[in-house]
Amino acid sequence: MATGEHGTPFRIFVAGFGSVSHVQPRDLPNPAFEIIKRLPSALSPASASRSHTYYPSIEIVAHPDPLPWSYHGLLQTVPSLVRRNVDAVVLILLIGVAVGQEYYSVEPSAVRDGYHEVPDLDRRTLPKGEGVKIWGRKSRERLATSVYLAAVGKSWHEELAVVHLGHDKKRLGGGKADEAGRGQGQQKSLPDLRHTDDVGSYVCGLLYYSTLAELVRITNEGAAATTATSGKREMEGKAVFLHVPLLLGDEQFEAGYEVVVALMRALAVVHSDVTRWV
């Protein structure tokens, strides 16, 4: 399994939701998946952070299909999706849209219960107590990422500031955002980046919790098995959720792309040497 240490690429798996059909009478492209479609397969080993001397290259494994806006669809999809990719990556990045939110936010945790209140697009909910049936009586009511998000937030701002100040036009790794026509030295106001704890109890919350719960299962299996599977122990908590605003149109999608790439770079540099941020 890739570790993201010196000389080893930081490999990240990324997945996001599909169309936002409940927001308008017509389907809208979900900015989460529109951003994912624009991601390259790799990013060069560069970083804006002055706090690091080692900048790992990044390999991106993007899930080719949008995730369903459905509780039961997610419960059927997430476990196998995590298990198919867990051995090959350092981290899982999940992206969803927060309707009515004008900022980008990384979320540290998700809850097991509460998905009985808001019906999904299939007009279904998860009954009270269903979480215990799914994940067991010993399952935790809240699961959290093991990623040091306070440090990631600092690096995230640094990475994006350099992009927006136009100091490095080639760092984005060959994606369409490189062709967006930014003028020489053009300055733009920085997007609003936040570290919150409000993933919610709708499909975003269930996606995050079920992903973290599957990583717990894999960790427990690895701890009880032989050394052949012990490499999986490190994956507990190795997932991060990003909420993006309801972006509309290519220009906003490209701006969201820059934000996500900056976040990936921040995750990579903090993972490579987290002690510098403590």
UniProtKB/TrEMBL annotation:
Keyword Repeat: no
Chain intervals for the UniProt region annotation (Disordered): 172-193
Coiled coil (residue ranges): none
Highest taxon, organism lineage: Eukaryota
Gene3D superfamilies: Peptidase C15, pyroglutamyl peptidase I-like
Keywords: Hydrolase, Protease, Thiol protease
Family the UniProt entry places it in: Belongs to the peptidase C15 family.
Protein name: Pyroglutamyl peptidase-like protein type I
High-level lineage: Eukaryota, Fungi, Dikarya, Ascomycota, Pezizomycotina
